[in-house]
Amino acid sequence: DGPATVSPTGQPTGAEQARAAQSGAYLTTAQGTRLPDSDHSLKAGARGPVLIQDHHLREKITHFDHERIPERVVHARGAAAHGVFVGYGAAGEVSKAAFLAKDVQTPVFVRFSTVLGSRGSADTVRDTRGFATKFYTDEGTFDLVGNNIPVFFIQDAVKFPDVIHAGKPHPDREIPQAQSAHDTFWDFVSLHTEATHHTLWNMSDRGIPRSFRMMEGFGVHTFRLVNAADESVLVKFHWKPRLGVHSLVWEEAQMICGMDPDFHRRDLFDAIESGAFPQWELGIQVFPDTADQTFEGIDLLDPTKIVPEELSPVQPIGLMTLNANTKNYFAETEQVAFHPGHLVPGIDVTDDPLLAGRLFSYLDTQISRLGGPNFGQIPINRPHAPVNDMLRDGMHQTAVHTGVAPYRPNSLDGGCPFLAGADMSAFIETPVEVPAASKVREAPSSFSDHFTQPRLFWLSMTPLEREHIVAAYTFELSKCHEQAVKERTLKVLANIDPELCGQVATGLGLPAPAATVPLVAAGSSPALSQMGGTWPTD
Ligand code: HEM
Questions:
Q1: How far apart are CA 454 and CA 214, in angstroms?
Q2: Which atom of ligand 1 is found nearest the CA of 159?
Q3: What is the share, in percent, of the chain residues with pLDDT greater than 70?
Q4: Is the pTM of this model over 0.90?
Q5: What ipTM did this prediction achieve?
Q6: Rounded to a whole number, what is the distance in angstroms from the first to the last CA of the chain?
Q7: Dihedral through CA 41, CA 44, CA 49, CA 55, nearest 10?
Q8: TM segments (predicted)?
């Protein structure tokens, strides 16, 4: 149940590894009984009927019949690798997390993914990419379950099923399998304008990365760090690739979808195999943990907003190197279970309503995806810290727990006492004051500006990047059948920028509508004025 059978890379060792390949001198059944033949079923004569007593045939076929497990409900297609994270020690003043201390080496497992496509879909589609990292720290597992785009489509988890239902293939014909070019997606994002910022990033070159190795990663939500003196700050996590940020162009992306649908997973595997280990620096933007949880007028609990790096630079706190490929895709990449609630002392969550829903969703979905509550015992999911819990039994239990008293307090198994002074680095929820309030179903008014930051993003683009964005919207919307959806989306674009809206409207052969909200001019918003209207994205 503990770390004993797991190597520093999280891979099975010893007995489990011996099981992993057909390395024995002879073939056996699953029970270890020697088999003379696994190629012929038992028959009454060479041309006669197959006998039901053929236990080997039954075992082999039955196991095969159950080889598949459900794919992830989102992020089904992924590729992953092992590596190591080394802390710089630069975060010591803001977090007591031991793995961030200088020169501490922590094994990691990273899974990159697309969001909407099925497990067998193509890699180079226009989509957000997942960037999920499992840190096997000495204080327990920390998962940073992020994306390659710093904002999200929705502000409240209650809308997650809606946005995914809209983004997944049409229910009637399951088309398209992996692209956003369809009516339901555009119907949703034009009706729910809080999706405008994320959609614009998707329509930019960020939606078609050249390689997983050349993507940024973002925690998206604001997290809370706590130091040894129990002082807290708010932070946003960033991964910066050492190779820089690069994208495909749309024509390349489309051609590669056909010619090599495994382009990104091949690229990652080949790079690591040849010793060209990809690296990312982990960085944080740090904000004071104020009562209003805003920074320069930006609501830090709103996952549709970024804090521009010009206002709060990303400070590097460690380096991650991916240096080992998976040995078995199913055992590792498919069975790994990330969860934003896997936290360690010194890292805590905030009240972002989207994050709250995620904290519920991942464990819940994994119980059905991985067949019961014991998937934490699968080698790739085992913590590298000692586990001393009172969870018992259940489907697929593989631990043989000893003792008689899996409850507390007890006087029979040692009682698992809290030793005075011994538990200094335990995870403790930050005691944040919750203001007295009545129950409501509403969003704070600070969540209602859906267009300033998309405009900021558009204004920061070079002419070529703008051309790509216009071409992407024109291509995607031209695939919509519903005229009303196209027209409504043009109204959304008008609220970002008249030039963007005008060019897409021309491409679609439709009139360009006027903006319905006042457009912020460079210099009129705190973020824009500090940047003179330009915002380099890399
Ligand atoms: C995967 C739910 C928002 C990043 C998943 C999975 C679920 C889920 C059910 C499949 C997990 C599994 O089967 O193991 C949700 C919900 C969200 C939400 C309910 C909002 C309410 C986000 C956001 C991000 C994100 C904002 C990025 C910051 C990921 C990633 C994966 C994932 C990277 C794939 C993990 C892997 O590689 O196994 N999400 N998600 N999700 N989600 Fe979310």
A1: 23
A2: 21
A3: 90
A4: yes
A5: 0.94
A6: 43
A7: -40
A8: none
